[in-house]
Amino acid sequence: MVAAGAALADEVGLAHLTMGLLAQRLGVRTPSLYKHVGGQEDLNRRIATLALGEAADAVGGAVQGYAGRDALAAAARAFRAFVLEHPGRYGATIGVEPHGPDDPLAIAGQRSLDAFRAVLRGYETDESDVDHALRMLRSLCHGFATLQAANGFQWSADIDESFEWLISFADRGLRAM
């Protein structure tokens, strides 16, 4: 049911996902859904957990065997592709807080961070700078991908060329540290 909710969120947008719409999609009555989830907030949390795990798999798989700029480029491209392909489920990850370290959301979030941590190993990042570097990478990748998904780049410059420019910019910054 969570996978169906995530697919529907990608299709209609997270803001338009309702228990009633999901029940209709699944061919069941809305009260039947409450046997599986505690309500809309619970459904959205489960979608967020699914999305973080899927993003971690995409980025982690993409960086294997690469280091430095190649790992950065692979991670950034995989993350961007995930957000563009799954804007609704990715949207569920924004602003949701884990309930504790054992929360599946926290575990999936940690896996996602670990995928980007692997990128940083190729840059000799000081341990005291890792959190800052992770936030920088997340901000760059998240910002670009979510703006693109929302059709936020409407000027003439090629979007892919701009994204490659962003990767080069991040690479230069990380190497300068």
Q: Could you characterize the architecture of this molecule?
A:
- This protein has 177 residues and is mainly alpha-helical.
- The protein is built from nine helices and no strands.
- The chain has helices at 2-12, 19-26, 30-33, 40-63, 68-85, 87-91, 104-120, 130-149, 159-176.
- α4 (40-63) packs parallel to α7 (104-120) and α5 (68-85) packs across α9.
- It is globular, with a radius of gyration of 18 Å.
- The model has no long low-confidence stretch (mean pLDDT 96).
Keyphrases for this structure?
single chain, 177 residues, mainly alpha
**Alpha carbon gap, first and last residue:** 45 Å
- Low-pLDDT stretches are none
How many β-strands, per DSSP? 0
Order of SSEs: HHHHHHHHH
Rounded to an integer, what's the Rg over CA atoms? 18 Å
Sheet with the most strands, sense and barrel status: none
Helix coverage percent? over 70%
Average pLDDT = 96
Number of helices: 9
The shape is globular
Task: Tell me which oligomeric state these chains represent.
Answer: single chain
Provide the β-strand percentage band: under 5%
**Overall SS class:** mainly alpha
